[in-house]
Design goal:
Blueprint lengths: L2 H27 L1 E3 L9 E3 L6 E3 L3 E8 L7 E5 L4 H7 L20 H10 L2 E11 L2 E8 L3 E8 L1 H8 L16
Antiparallel strand pairs: 1-4, 2-3, 4-5, 5-8, 6-7, 7-8
Length: about 180
């Protein structure tokens, strides 16, 4: 085998190894299972008090990653109907669920978005600024299934695209992780 072929094989091996490592880190490596906090895992922001309050839930499972504030995904079931929740909690318009890794199979962003568009799921604000500029969004379906994800709010969208944030946004305070 010539030196040229050996170098080419070495480069191909390195490229394949780097690609496999990148794939693993993006799909599996950074995600962790969220530890349960009974009674506090699923909350919605009250219309009256403007604070997050727990709602009844069961079967909670969630994943998160420290590498990004918008990688949080969760699934649960609830006995509360979307109509009952809408009377007491802040609704969110135009929310689109973010894709979850394929192995977190309880969270199908496309199916959730279709249910929201069809009106068989309602979307609520779960918490404001869980990280700077990031809100927790909760969707509840007519059959009692619930889904949670994080979404940039107006301040977060401005902060991450480089636009001047302005006075209406809270001051940025780095989180100590």
């Amino acid at each position: 085998m010539t030196l040229g072929r050996l170098v080419i094989l070495l480069l191909l091996f390195c490229a394949l190894a780097a690609g496999a490592a990148l794939y693993y880190l993006q799909v599996y490596g950074y995600y962790d299972t969220v530890e349960l906090d009974p009674g506090q895992d699923v909350q919605l922001v009250s219309l009256e008090t403007d604070t997050a309050e727990p709602i009844p839930y069961d079967g909670f499972q969630a994943i998160d990653a420290e590498s990004s504030p918008i990688r949080y995904r969760a699934c649960f079931t609830t006995t509360a109907s979307p109509e009952t929740l809408a009377a007491s909690y802040v609704a969110v318009a135009d929310a689109t669920p973010r894709n979850a890794p394929f192995w977190f199979d309880c969270f199908d962003a496309k199916a959730i978005a279709e249910r929201i568009a069809a009106g068989s799921a309602q979307v609520f604000l779960g918490a404001k600024n869980v990280h700077y500029g990031v809100d927790r969004i909760v969707a509840v379906t007519d059959d009692g299934r619930g889904y949670i994800w994080h979404e940039l709010n107006n301040c977060g969208a401005k902060a991450y695209d480089g636009t001047v944030v302005g006075e209406e946004c809270p001051p940025f305070e780095p989180q100590n992780n």
